[in-house]
Amino acid sequence: MSVGAVKRFLVLQGPNLDRLGRREPETYGSMTLPELQAHLDEVAAELGCELAHYQSAREGRLVERVHQAIDDGFDGAIVNAAAYTHTSIALRDALLAGPLPFIEVHLSNVYARESFRHHSYLADVAIGVITGLGPIGYALALRALVGRASVG
Question: Superfamily for 8-151?
Answer without folding.
Answer: Dehydroquinase, class II (3.40.50.9100)
